[in-house]
């Protein structure tokens, strides 16, 4: 205002403001407070009293609603803590599911080793039986009638054992090992999905970011509250800056 007194009048200054500032003044209903930076003593105190009086009038006109209060932030903190606990629970649940899958995976690996060892053992036994069968045929050709009868009984038992072992080999290869491999693939897919879903990080920080995004309207309310309480003051300050 001190510069205005030396160069122009408040009314002339306001008539020549920029379009953007004019739009801002319209939103503030052209409530302007002029501050004289050269004032001192009693005059300076009167300016402060005038400013506070104008702010009080605006608050009264707005129905004495205090937008800028601690209630909103207390509510936001409560929401954030609730979300923080939800994130912690999700992380624990996800980790527990991963632990169960790891245990199942270890069990399948042991079962796979056991079946593989069993398969190799059966194949080894089959090779032994085939070798002894060929030797038995050669011996049987030169043996007596009574000996041939004994060899026939032994050969039948070997054939039965070979048949049983071949069925075991087929079962292990076509059923057991395939089932284990299928289960391993399913576990791998589940682990991959859980790993992608399992977001590591500080639950508090994660909750704060989520609540901040979710409550953008809260910031809008606070901004409107600040504007409602301080339009007059803010207009005066900006007016001084543009002088």
From TrEMBL:
It holds the Pfam family AIG1. Residues 3-81 form the AIG1-type G domain. The keyword Nucleotide-binding applies. InterPro entries: G_AIG1, P-loop_NTPase. Keywords: Coiled coil, Nucleotide-binding. One of its GO terms (molecular function) is GTP binding. Belongs to the TRAFAC class TrmE-Era-EngA-EngB-Septin-like GTPase superfamily. AIG1/Toc34/Toc159-like paraseptin GTPase family. IAN subfamily. This is AIG1-type G domain-containing protein. It comes from Magallana gigas (Pacific oyster).
């Amino acid at each position: 205002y001190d510069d205005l007194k030396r160069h122009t009048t408040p009314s002339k200054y306001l008539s020549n403001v920029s379009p953007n500032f004019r739009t801002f003044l319209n939103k503030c209903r052209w409530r302007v407070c002029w501050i004289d930076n050269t004032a001192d003593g009693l005059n300076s105190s009167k300016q402060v009293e005038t400013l506070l009086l104008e702010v009080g009038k605006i608050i009264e006109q707005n129905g004495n609603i205090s937008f800028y209060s601690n209630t909103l932030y207390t509510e936001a903190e409560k929401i954030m803590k609730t979300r923080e606990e939800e994130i912690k629970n999700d992380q624990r649940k996800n980790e527990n599911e991963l632990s169960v899958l790891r245990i199942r995976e270890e069990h399948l690996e042991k079962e796979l080793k056991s079946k593989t060892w069993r398969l190799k053992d059966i194949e080894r036994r089959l090779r032994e039986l085939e070798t002894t069968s060929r030797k038995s045929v050669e011996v049987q050709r030169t043996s007596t009638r009574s000996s041939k009868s004994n060899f026939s009984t032994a050969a039948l038992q070997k054939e039965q054992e070979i048949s049983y072992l071949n069925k075991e080999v087929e079962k292990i290869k076509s059923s057991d090992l395939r089932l284990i491999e299928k289960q391993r693939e399913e576990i791998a897919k589940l682990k991959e999905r859980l790993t992608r879903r399992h977001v590591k990080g500080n639950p508090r920080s994660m909750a704060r970011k989520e609540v901040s995004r979710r409550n953008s309207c809260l910031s809008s309310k606070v901004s409107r509250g600040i504007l409602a309480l301080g339009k007059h003051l803010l207009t005066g300050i900006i007016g001084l800056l543009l002088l």
